[in-house]
Description:
This protein has 260 residues and is α/β, with parallel strands linked by helices. Helix content is 38%, strand content 26%. The protein has two domains: 5-92 and 171-259, Rossmann fold; 100-168, no CATH class. It is built from nine helices and ten strands. A six-stranded mixed beta sheet has the order 6-7-8-3-9-10, with helices on both faces. The chain has a four-stranded antiparallel beta sheet with strand order 2-1-4-5. A hairpin with a 2-residue loop joins β4 and β5. The N and C termini lie far apart (38 Å).
Amino acid sequence: MSQEIMIKLTDVYKSFGEIKVLQGVDLEVRRGEIISIIGPSGSGKSTMLRCINKLEALDKGVVEIEGTVVASAGMPERPQASAARVRESLGRTSMVFQSFNLFPHMTALGNVIEAPVHVKKMKKAAARELGTQQLIRVGLEDKLDAFPSKLSGGQKQRVAIARALAMEPDVLLFDEPTSALDPELIGEVLDVIKKLAQEHMTMLIVTHEMNFAREVSDRIIFIDGGKIVADSPPDLFFNNPGHPRIITFLDKMLSQHENH
């Protein structure tokens, strides 16, 4: 695996009012790595992802994508790159949200080609070809012309993944991609992500699915109280968690899983 650093966070802080959500987060993501981010609700997992692609502004710290400083606050020695460079670097990441965010008036294919056509200025025909390929990739070749209202939650999320892939990103960010789904639909979405993992797509995945995280990840990051408490390979994390907060969290998650 090459050692190229795709994403780097340095001393990132973020608060919402009085609530300190991230407190000095440092993270490096290398090309081809699959990292699952887990932790209690409200621990800062989603906020960390949103700081990477500038959906949230930092209070302090630096975010780099492939060596370009896309966000910088309180660190004048590491200024943010030009607006054009930042835009280009942000274009190398795609995010999949928990709530799909599909356009209801567009077909599955229409949703997938919207950004390549309007953001990347791709010709319609080329975009349709690319969009069709991505929908085939997520197992929806028979749903190209279906509108979101005619799709199950799992299918909608797979369209959202195809849409993210159509931007041909270097890094995929997943923000709890299965948390809005009925239990019986979760598997089909996780299967798509597993397939991408086999293709060595660089991915950061915020998830509550412990077995999935254990199976696909190169590293597990555990966030609690806005800090990274653990960053370790899955075997070590699950078999020898060490930290009392992690043990409590895993006990709770696994007992919830058994009760389902």
